[in-house]
Structure formats: C-alpha cells, structure tokens
Amino acid sequence: MISALAKSERLMQLEQLLLAHPSGLRRAEIARRLGVHRATVARYVTELTGYLPLYECDDGRIGINRDDYLSNIRLTIHESLALYLASRLMTDRTDRFNPHAAAALRKLGQSLRAFAPTIAQHIVGEADRVESSKTLRDPIFLSVLETLTKAWSEGRLVRLVHHSVHRNINCAYLFAVYIIVPYAVGQSIQVIGRCRGEDHLRTLRVDRIVEAELTSETYRLPAGEEMTKTLTDAWGIWYSEAAPVQVVLRFSRQVAHRVRESVWHPSQQISELPEGKLLWRARISEPREMFPWIRGWGADVEVLEPSDLRQRMACEATDLARMYAPSGQDCGPDRG
Questions:
Q1: What is the pLDDT of residues 264-293, one digit of tens each?
Q2: 84 in Cβ contact with 126 (< 8 Å)
Q3: Which of 27, 75, 99, 281 could form a disulfide with 79 if both were Cys (CB 3.0 to 4.6 A apart)?
C-alpha cells in the first residue's frame, strides 16, 4: 500500500513538474528533481502517456502538450452558473465564431446532468446555438487567438503582424502577451502587452492580427495585480500613465433610475438633484472611451466635465440637428 501510494504521488509530481516547465525536461533532470533513477522515470513516462498528452523532442526533452491537456476542476452549481453567464456574455459580444467556447459550454452542461438536468439541458442547448450561429467563421482569427493563448500561458514571445486600420499598413512586432480581454465596443477581443524595443504597453485588436508565430524566447509576465492596477481607472481597456480625469454627467429624471441601479465604474459617485435629476461622477483614464456609452443616452445626459468631452458632444449634437433639421417635426416633451 505504501509503495502504491508513493508511486501515485510520484506520478502526480511528474505531471505537475512537466506542467511547470512548458519547454519540457530531459529524463536526467526529471530523475534529479524527483529523486529517482532514470529507469524509474522511463516507466513513469510510459504510464503517464496512457492518459496524458506527453511528447518527446528530438533533443530528449519530455513535455505536456497543453493544447490537448484537460484540466480537472470541481464546481458548485452556483460557480457553474457563473461560468455559463460569462461564456454567454462573451459569445454574444464577439462577432467571431469560437469553437472552444462552444466546447466548454457543452462540457459544463454535461457535468451538470446528474444533479441539475434542467440547467444542463439549457447549457448544452446554448452550446448548440453557438455552434450553429451565423457569426463569422474566421480560421486566421482562431489560429491567432490560439497562438496568443499559448504565448500567454507559457510566457513566450510571439512574432506577429498587425494591420493598422488608420495607416492602412501591416506592422510587425515581437510581442509579449500580458493579458487577453473581451471588449464589447466593436464586438472584439483585445490583447494587451509590450513590444520588443518599446517601454509602453500596446493594445492590439486580435481580429486585425493577420499572422502570429510562437517563438522560443521567453519573457517575465508582470504580476497579476500590476495589470489590474493598470486597468483600474479604465472605462474599458483604454489606459493612461497620466492621472485619471474626472467625468461629471447630469442625467434626466427619465433615466435616473436606470443609471442609479448599476455600477458603471468602480470610482463612480452619484448625487441626487432637484426634479429627479441625477449627477454622476467618476475618475476615468481616457474619457474618450466613454463616448459611445454617453452618446447612447441621447438627450437624457449632459456632459459637464471635462470640457473637451463636452465640446465633442456639442459638435455631435450640432451635426445631428443639421442632419434631422428638414423634418420640422415636434421632438416631444422636454427631457428634463
């Protein structure tokens, strides 16, 4: 019993050791780290090959193929629902088909069949919906996203070509992936990181990356709290090294209840005004990123600060008035 237990523990140690070294390890190094003979390592590798996607390089390094490795995770029904809602939000807010999202939903649904069949059936049905949806099938996008994922997980630089829409040229970068995030504006996925030779962060839209090749060069990922801090004051993903800017908005009584019931930004402060109006304040890295959201409220919001954002909204209102001027129709009751 003791021998069997020790062997099981060694096999688990070997699995964790290989996961911790994405580039793989030679048998001699594995034997040294586990404190066993090289012949024992050979037997362990043979046993693990039966249920783990191991590979062996020409130079003798043994590793785990992370593309095919299945992680084990145990979830409560509430945690499962949280993952389902996150997946549903992602698939509804990106315009490219992602088969991995559908596969994850199906596995999540199947894992709930025994004790929550109603929820399981719905989640599996959602996986079917994602797979049969008419979202754009883009093999280049999918390949690029998979390469970026591997680069992020293994801390390896990726050589990529990104199309700049504004300059209408392709730009080549040697890129260190720091984080990959969904972005509702533009129905896209963005990658944030640092290019070789640059001292500032760069954000690239994944569907504008036309080529991506994983390299053998590694880099040091910043601590998780560093990226969290970088994006703390962002409205979405726009960040700045300058101090955040105070944004002050005044909402009409018609939408005050809707504004009040949501936390739109961690720094927001809300004050009640006479006649049911509402004053909303927040400190934002790049207020320009808020423009689509502010514009969505129409005449029910007025920008008070900052002045450049107020001026932009004023110009927008002027353009809209000019566009709709010929109608001459009554615009309805005062918005207050």
A1: 999 999 999 999 999 999 999 999 999 999
A2: yes
A3: 75
Backbone angles phi, psi at 171, to 5 degrees: -120, 135
* Separation between Cα atoms, residue 60 and residue 25, nearest integer Å: 8
With H, G, I as helix, E, B as strand and everything else as coil, classify residue 94. coil
The amino acid at residue 308 is D
Architecture of the domain whose range is 139-231: Roll (2.30)
Q: Is-cis flag, bond preceding 306, omega within 30? A: yes
Between CA 268 and CA 81 the distance in angstroms is: 28
What DSSP string describes 42-60?
Answer: HHHHHHHHTTS-EEE-TTS
- Could you tell me which of 168, 173, 190 has the C-alpha nearest to residue 181? 190
Model confidence band, residue 2 (pLDDT cutoffs 50, 70, 90):
very low
Instruction: For the chain, give every residue range classified as CATH 2.30.30.
Output: 139-231
Give 35-46 pLDDT, tens digit per residue.
888 888 888 888
Which of these, 220, 322, 239, 329, lies nearest to 284 by C-alpha position? 239
Q: The whole model's pTM is what?
A: 0.75
Q: What angle do CA 98, 100, 104 make, to 5 degrees?
A: 130
Is pLDDT at 1 greater than 50 in this prediction? Answer: no
Number of Cβ atoms within 10 Å of the Cβ of 186: 13
DSSP SS3 for 335: coil
Residues in the chain: 336
List where CATH 3.30.70 sits in the chain. 245-327
27: number of Cβ within 10 Å: 18
The third-level CATH classification (topology) of the domain covering 245-327 is Alpha-Beta Plaits (3.30.70)
Which residues make up the CATH 1.10.10.10 domain(s) of the chain?
2-64
- What does the radius of gyration of the chain's CA atoms come to, in whole angstroms? 26
**Record: fold of 2-64:** Arc Repressor Mutant, subunit A (1.10.10)
